[in-house]
Amino acid sequence: MTIWNAAYREATWNGLSAEPWDILIVGGGITGAGILREAARLNFRTLLVEQRDFAWGTSSRSSKLVHGGLRYLKTGQVGLTRASVQGREQLLAEGAGLVDPLGFLLAQYENDGASAGRLVYGAGLTVYDLLALQWSHRYYSPQDFQMMAPYISPTGLRGGFHYQDAQTDDARLVLRVLREAADDGGVALSYVRAETMRFADTAVDGGAPVGLWLRDTLTDRRAEVRAGVIINATGAWADTLRLQVGQESRIRPLRGSHLIFPAWRFPVAQAVSFMHPIDGRPVFAFPWEGVTLVGTTDVDCPPPLDQDPGITADEVAYLMAAVTGHFPALDLTLDDVVATFAGIRPVIGSGKADPSDESRDHVIWDENGLLTVTGGKLTTFRQIARQALEQVCARLDGVGGESGESRLARLHDDTPMFTPLDDAATLPATMPAETRRRLLGHYGARVAELAAVAQPGEWDQIPGTPAVWAELRWAARAEAVVHLDDLLLRRVRVGLWLPGGGVDLLPRVRAIVQPELGWDDERWAAESAAYLGLVAAAYGLPDRATIPDWRAMLSRSREARAVAVVVRRERRLSAGRRAGLALALVLLLVVFWRLIRHRETGEGVE
Asked: Which of 66, 388, 438, 453 has the fewest Cβ atoms within 10 angstroms?
């Protein structure tokens, strides 16, 4: 089994140009990882490169939901919902401990249009469940709903629905998929940037791309790598390579930001979704890995995109207004926020004014020989990988060729997404069942190796987190950790679970990982300073003086709604008065007409 350490990286780099690869994948998020996994299973000689750490971009900064795409039904994207539901169910079946069920509560309030909403959401949830061949949703009265979400505001609550979805540790999902790809022969390198496309001819129009110049960002050395197919799986950064094959920019990067609270301060037993009290967008709060996550925003994020994105002051106020408006009894303040994070979604721009109206479906473009795959999701990464590889098989093996037919048949077989496990015996018998389940899900077949490196006391939980100390040692030794933020933000998510990125634990972390990484004291000091600076800049709150007063925002919104209610009432009353006057006039005309008719009739009789 591959050990991703400095020696592996050096040996791999030195062999990059030895012979052409079948497939070169650019992008180490869930989309690229999924393609590498399926390509390796088909025995394609495949290389994946990522310019930063694996899952550095969107795939470690998502909302952590493996959802079936309920919101897509609203826009009629039934096919996307069906694919998402199928992907979710397979991940739940095979990835227990990494992908777990999550109950969802959908609150409905009077000012949401709850009466109509109950019918609409009821119909949508029925379709949602039928696509998954289950029946998990149910409507609850206001009293019963409050029992499941005790701190939610009762004012105007009309009840709500409960249904089932799922959640995951997104970065660990990427790592496990990459690991299983490596076990089947796939090769993955982080901190390698794809710079210049190489074409069959010197001009772009002269032929399809046949390779890339790659740069090792750690040493600044370069290598020319040739490949039969180049796949651009860089998500929000996809236009960078597309421009090199003469295409116009089409990606609309959207930022989704989140707040993280301690679970004890914001206790929710399951996800609670509700409409934002100001603009009516859906917002959620749900339990994740021992904390409570609140999100998300959906705003344009213009280039450049080469720095870690962070939440803005306006987004903080927006999310605080949401939790204050719907959970006033908790009296949450900025002092309660443990961490924040922001991710950039790769959405295909169509010019819509509201970013939330843009389609979330994925696309696969073959443009002058460059295969771009973007818009992927945690839920549907395998289906997307298989669709991309259908085109690869046709291109590399030839339509109707024996090899092509064989690979295409294997591409769509019922092989499990994850390698089946039977390693529970390698973990201590006294380990809590939930910890055992979590480790098996997160590390798969590597859990035996993790167990082998654990030192005395390292099966203890890291205080305030669901992780154990041994995970830090294993990640430092074998999971391609280059910088401290790779370790504490993506391998073991201490930086999201604890205040200040877990600064109080750094002495113990240092004792475990510094020898494993081979860092001297000077390197440790530089890495820890860089890590804490990054946490403050991109995973903390912005300057509090710049954060708008969300309570005043709520107050103005409530006043505006109250005025709107009065205006609507006056309009209804005015309409009623006009209707009454019109009816009275009609009655008078009828009476007058009958009197005239009666008089005419009487005169005729005389």
From this structure: 453
**Among 432, 468, 424, which residue's Cα sits nearest to residue 448?**
424
Cis peptide before 46 (omega within 30 of 0): no
| For residue 404, pLDDT beyond 70 | no
Angle at 195 between CA 191 and CA 198, to 5 degrees: 130
**What tens digit of pLDDT does each residue of 211-247 get?**
999 999 999 999 999 999 999 999 999 999 999 999 9
Separation CA 252–CA 346 (nearest Å): 6
Cis before 253? omega within 30 = no
Residue 585: pLDDT band with limits 50, 70, 90: confident
Q: Could you tell me the CA-to-CA distances from 140 to 68, 133, 158, 273 in Å, in that order? A: 22, 22, 9, 14
Is 184:41 a contact under the CB 8 Å cutoff? yes
Pick from 48-62, 66-80, 433-447: least confident: 66-80
How many angstroms separate the Cα of 29 from the Cα of each of 20, 54, 491, 496, 565?
A: 23, 6, 14, 19, 47
Q: What is the DSSP string of 294-344?
A: EE---EE-PSP--S-----HHHHHHHHHHHHHH-GGG---GGG--EEEEEE
Residue 606 has pLDDT above 50, yes or no: no
More confident residue, 422 or 489: 489
User: Which are the contacts of 588, defined by CB distance < 8 A and separation ≥ 6?
Assistant: none
- 340 close to 316: Cβ distance less than 8 angstroms: yes
Token digits of residue 467: 């992780």
User: Is 584 strand, coil or helix?
Assistant: helix
Secondary structure element (H or E) that encloses residue 193, with its range? strand 192-199
Residue 467: helix, strand or coil by DSSP? Answer: coil
Residue among 432, 2, 425 nearest 181 (CA) = 2
Percent of the chain residues past pLDDT 70, beyond the cut: 88
Evaluate whether 489 touches 475 at the Cβ level (below 8 Å): no
Q: CA 502 to CA 481: how far, in whole Å? A: 18
Q: Hey, CA dihedral for 327, 330, 332, 337, is it positive or negative?
A: negative
pLDDT tier, 569 (very low <50, low <70, confident <90, very high otherwise): low
